[in-house]
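2024-03-11 09:14:02 INFO receiving multi-entity request
2024-03-11 09:14:02 INFO entity count = two
2024-03-11 09:14:03 INFO echoing inputs for audit
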Amino acid sequence: MVIGAVEPIVDGGRFPIKRVSGQSVSVRAVVFTEGHDRLRAVLRHRAQGEAEWTEVEMSSLPNDRFEATFHVGPPGSHEYEVEAWVDSFATWRSGLDKKVDAGVDVSVELLEGAGLVEAAARRASAAGQDSERRWLDDRVRSLRPPQEPGRRIATAQSEDLARAVERHPDRSNAARMERALSVQVERERAGTGAWYEFFPRSTDAGSDTHGTFRDGETRLEYVARMGFDVVYLPPIHPIGRTHRKGRNNATTAEAGDPGSPWAIGSREGGHKSIHPELGTFEDFDRFVARARDLGIEIALDVAFQCSPDHPYVREHPQWFRRRPDGSIQYAENPPKKYQDIYPLDFECEDWRALWDELASVFFFWIERGVTIFRVDNPHTKPFAFWEWVIREVRGRHPEAVFLAEAFTRPAVMQHLAKAGFSQSYTYFTWRNTKAEIQAYFRELSSSPVSDYMRPNLFANTPDILPEYLQSGRRAAFQVRATLAALLANTWGVYGPPFELCLSRARQGSEDYEDSEKYEIRRWTLDDPWSLAPYLESLNEIRRAHPALREGDGPVFYEVDNRDILAFGRHADAADETIVVVVNLDPHHTQSGWLSLPLDDLGIDGDRPFQAHDLLGGERYLWQGSTNFVELNPERAPAHVFRLRRRVRSENDFDYF
Amino acid sequence: MVIGAVEPIVDGGRFPIKRVSGQSVSVRAVVFTEGHDRLRAVLRHRAQGEAEWTEVEMSSLPNDRFEATFHVGPPGSHEYEVEAWVDSFATWRSGLDKKVDAGVDVSVELLEGAGLVEAAARRASAAGQDSERRWLDDRVRSLRPPQEPGRRIATAQSEDLARAVERHPDRSNAARMERALSVQVERERAGTGAWYEFFPRSTDAGSDTHGTFRDGETRLEYVARMGFDVVYLPPIHPIGRTHRKGRNNATTAEAGDPGSPWAIGSREGGHKSIHPELGTFEDFDRFVARARDLGIEIALDVAFQCSPDHPYVREHPQWFRRRPDGSIQYAENPPKKYQDIYPLDFECEDWRALWDELASVFFFWIERGVTIFRVDNPHTKPFAFWEWVIREVRGRHPEAVFLAEAFTRPAVMQHLAKAGFSQSYTYFTWRNTKAEIQAYFRELSSSPVSDYMRPNLFANTPDILPEYLQSGRRAAFQVRATLAALLANTWGVYGPPFELCLSRARQGSEDYEDSEKYEIRRWTLDDPWSLAPYLESLNEIRRAHPALREGDGPVFYEVDNRDILAFGRHADAADETIVVVVNLDPHHTQSGWLSLPLDDLGIDGDRPFQAHDLLGGERYLWQGSTNFVELNPERAPAHVFRLRRRVRSENDFDYF
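2024-03-11 09:21:47 INFO inference complete, emitting structure
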């Protein structure tokens, strides 16, 4: 018996697939043995720690393929496997039917069948099902002489008998996969959400002074109005003074420069402390509670690195690497040297204590009500550490969510996802043309990548003001927000620079001019040009349409214009497909013919149907698979059409 | 350190890939670790039983990919694996270069480098390479004060130093794949050849009497003239009498009917005996020797099943399954019953003795000079048996070649190839249209299938007269022979029915009318319409052009006519591509525009080039990628063009 080509699977079962609670896992396998015997296969699954497996009979498809689906329960680790066996009774029955049809003498075949039923009766008896045993034993007698042949054949071919024997299969020679596969089940927010990043120190509305968590509460209301689910804060810990960077990343800070929040640690504390100018723990708790009241979760930045002033440097000097001159090795990206940052030496002699301490950072903030962590540069720390620490944290807190900020090579980015991160930043920010977007999202949506890596599409970050947005066109920001919000289930922006269409970069770079990373900024949130209402619309549309927040990856449609991208999103849970059409050119009106696969969309090509633009409100009457679209970036660079599956009645008129 | 995505690989390493002696294995892997350290990787390989690995440095490609190639030696089992480590010196050197270029102070970096070189010197010393140690120790002194900075930097950046340290890498933390992968290396005939099947009993030229091996010697000369490499004989063992089948598979035989050779065994013997009417062992040995003199190898049919008269039935009744009425279970394909055939019960209590006996059948014939076996219906016997018996036979006779006649579902066919069969019959016989052929050969040519399954394309067999040939058109036979001979490295026909264009099938079936399976036939080999000269041309062209006998799978080219199929074949060993154009319509002349990827073929699209038809002899002067082709089935249904890579000189004229 061979059980092969089992899917979904990641690296032969070395890593789990991912799902959120309630989602389905459709398991496919190729199961066969020599000859032509009928087989049965079951999909077995259970939550970790459960003694009993739940079994689902697998459907047999052509070419030895079998398939079945189960739904995962609460967050935690689940496992699944396939077991299969030869169904001797069904094999016998199928041969018998053919021989009976051909008028061949089957008296010996009926004796064989009686033997099979007798064995099933014995198994029923062993299982304590005596009435079933008696019923089967009756059938054994009906299958054997002296019963007359017609009666014997009728008994053999009765469906009741087939079902009864099926209930007591002979699984003594069943084969099973070498090892069960696992599913990492997480809560909903691991799989879907709208993120908003802001610097709490830039929230003081009145003056240039340092914003606090108290000030930030007002900002939370602003973010909540736009419909975001998660507010992610850059590090909130005390900032180092030694080698502090000045405005625009200047090597030396002026008096009063606040420094980069990623230079973590000062005499006021490290990763478990709050920067005094932001407020107290009490203020933080209030901030988190206020967010919760507004339907928002706070995500913290976890950057495992230290400023030279971090308490770890004094208390645990063995956690840092020394240079030959005795100094501590600072971070570098040759020829650049970052003397304000000391990397931790994850492979030092005292690594066990270091790793435990770092794990305790997660536990510390979880105690304070934060369970979403955006991890800074995970790709510069050992994979083994992440696999271990995420497992440790999840073991006690299955609700913890981890976002990997790994802007690195594809293999490394994917490996971190395999190692346990719930979500990943992606290359989305640098995929601008139709061909680039199609190729990249086909990759992200295809198995096995889609089984373990969940994209979180940030349209910008404090580190990345993409060239496409540097044009300063409002339409460019609309295009990128639309794509980020609708191409995947999780998206985000770094605001207010995003909605205020901030476009000035430092010469020849993707860094913001006067970046908040190095100074405190003030924002005019009520700017009439602000895209806040547009972001609100996108989040509202996502909220109303499961296809956009928990659907499969995009399916791209043909448009005969290289600047117009069109795609559909669909979720099993909802009976609708959302079709998004975007003009990628923020400068000119573009038009073209859009081809929709009407059959897949459940639309009758011979009758008119209405395409309702959820974004602009317009309704278009279309017919057939090819329809005209035109998008003026000054007015609206995108359509978001809702197409519901046609109601299949006699006199329906497809008005959506 | 992660070593992943290693290719070629079959089922995660559960089964070996296949190669013939002298062929290359190009191994690709993705190798990476956290951060930005430089890595080195080696491909290690050895024949089974060798203590030492041979190492080949792998080339580093973009996106963490590494690649290297090795060539396999004599038949037997070989293994390969990838090992990788962090190259601290190269990492350090790359950072140093950038800092030096940027004019940054590197005095501490030079001390670090000195430490790395010192460690390399210690490793050289441990390896007993004292002069290398001394040389390196000299460099250590040059890297340290009091040497002046310029001298220190020059030493650090010298390529001699880099090469010397590279020779003594620190592999103490090297990572290796969990387990090595294996290659089943076979002799050339496992990978390439032209097969011809005939019934030796139909070789008596004079009368209707039973042909013998002596008669067969003349037939061998006829086959050798056509250029075939292998003659495959249906079973040559004594034929059973009980329930013997008559002509055209009649349930009862008439007196004088010779029976089917696949009903093996009579009182004269079984699988290790020769049917008396074919001759003696001495005659057989002469026949095999005569073939060898003609450059032909004899392949025997191994059909592990018994007629009721087989000695096994009497001597080892425990090897057969009993029915409830005590009779032995005969073969069936419900509702059909084959009472002349008893299957062996491979899972009987006495299976060990049975398996040993069956293995001894192979050894018996290998002793008599036969090492190619065409195995009948392997898919109805346990996979575990084949994996075991092929390993046993190859262990003593690595020259043994096994062809699986598994006309069954794709998964089963593929699994038998994985389990050890050298070659497989395919669905080629039923792939007739352009779309079918393209889809099927793309599947066969793509990894991993191409790494373990070698197609043997039979244009017909005694069991299969395909519908396409039943039209009786000579051109139909030419088309199928051309495709079989040129689409893959191994092909075959069942003759003389093939070259004589025999097209009469039994009503509604693919069985030959008056099949040789049940009677002795006489053949008019000198029929002027015989395709023997055409088959000879095909084999001659194959012999002259490595692309066609040891090349990669076909690459299909575009022709704007659905009845014209075009493909190219290429072998690394030869600097030429053969382009085959076939009119699949045996009834009508077809024409169209053929598009060739000139760049891939090394042809300058701006200059005329000549396409030389190896089959018809014509030469066509073409220019550009699109050229006109027209094929009249009455004259020649195919072109076989030879295109040599352009000689890249100033004044070459591309006359091929």
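2024-03-11 09:21:48 INFO post-check: The first helix of chain B runs from residue 88 to 101.
2024-03-11 09:21:48 INFO post-check: The first strand of chain B starts at residue 2 and ends at 7.
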